[in-house]
Amino acid sequence: MGPEESWRVVEGQRHAIADIVESVEPARWEQPSLCAEWRVRDVVAHLVLGSQRIRAGAIFPAAVRARGNYNRMNRDMAVDHADRPAQVLVAELRQGAASREVPAITNYRNILFDVLVHGQDITVPLGIELAIPHEAGTAAASTVWSTGWPLWTQKRFRGLRFTATDVPWAAGTGQEVRGPIAALLITLAGRSAALDQLEGDGIDNLTSRLPASPHSNQAHRAPR
Description:
Number of domains: 2
Low-confidence stretches: 217-221
């Protein structure tokens, strides 16, 4: 997918997420998301920040406070921004839906992947389906598979081959894991919530490399 198509999907996902979180009761904003140690509220705030041009001068102090830990820095920045009323965060997400600004050290491919995965981080625990377009899911899966720092996806899943059953996409070598591209995307991003949608002789191997998820057994399917 090129930039124009990717940005259109990003905009649509941001609007859809804003509609979803606005519709749920306030208490559900505080429940855990699929992203470890992040509340639904924190993930919404992270998506708001992802629509803004956060310059390196602002990121550097946050990185120092996090002692260079990228994941901790991201979480700290999200938690700080999440300390706002829910209606303010919803308004910010809508206001930035069409934004093509990107924080320092990222690009539109990463924003597409980020929005698709974090949309699932929010909606799966809420039990609400948010569709992932096939082409966008394929592009995002390719992005996460090819990303080195800070994900190191190929290293994490060495010895496994992932094959989509609904689009022509595959990556890796070794024991096979098959399933819908949306489920593969969530899994490659380090979430175990879609394991029940996957099959193949590599499932046990894959499961051992992922954290347990309290949401993996609920009646929710990764969107098509």
